[in-house]
Amino acid sequence: MDERALPRPIVQEDVEPELFVAGEPELEGPFAVGVTSDGQTLRMVLGNYSDPSTVSGRMFMKVAKGEMLLRVEPGAGSENMCLATKEGNCLIFPISQIPIMKNAAKGVIAIRMSASDRVLGCALSAAARQGLEVETSRGRSEIVRPTKFPISNRGNKGRLIIKRGDIKSVIYPTVEITDGMSD
Question: Which one of 11, 97, 101, 144 is separated from 25 by 20 to 30 angstroms, measured CA to CA?
Fold first, then answer.
């Protein structure tokens, strides 16, 4: 043994209990979940945005040049993310698979796509028959939901919605925000 090596410190659990906590504590919701057009996703605690904004505003997500943040939705942590791409792929995965970020970041891969493909829309689904409604280039309306498409893991290519043609548009439901006060 090398003489220069320091002896190991003796840690006593009753004196320093914080050293014996297993891992980092899981952050509690509600969460803000966002998706970019290049298929990146991010989950943050909404409490980070409770302070008043600065002069330059609050940054939620770092977006690559030429891409855009499509949508940010609040979630409790138990919902599924439903995604649809321009070339007709869809993916459903639990948002618990998205790591929780403490600050603005680029995010992680939500769906893998070809270089020419783009994510058109996303929605959080808390119920089996709830999801993202899309319209195909042939005029058909389709709902990307867990009862129709399998729930899989984040980061794969997803399943085809349409074989001939592509997705023309995404139809978002009306979001109603109340202040919690009853009349």
Answer: 11
Please check whether residue 76 lies inside any domain of the structure. Answer: yes
Pair of tokens at residue 137: 């280039």
The size of the chain, in residues, is 183
- In the chain, the number of structural domains is 1
Neighbouring C-beta atoms of residue 74, cutoff 10 Å: 14
Residue, of 177 and 120, whose pLDDT is higher? 120
Has residue 144 been placed in a domain?
A: yes
Q: Which of 69, 77, 64, 67 is nearest to 29 (CA)?
A: 77
CATH of the domain at 101: 2.120.10.90
What pLDDT is attached to residue 104? 79
The percent of residues above 90 in pLDDT, for the chain, comes to 49
Assess contact for 166 and 87: CB atoms under 8 A: yes
Encoding tokens for residue 27?
A: 């952050």
Grouping H, G, I as helix, E, B as strand and the rest as coil, residue 48 is: helix
Q: What is the pTM of this model?
A: 0.78
Cβ neighbours of residue 35 under 8 Å, at least 6 residues apart?
41, 69, 70, 71, 81, 83, 110, 119, 122
Return the structure tokens found at 11: 């840690």
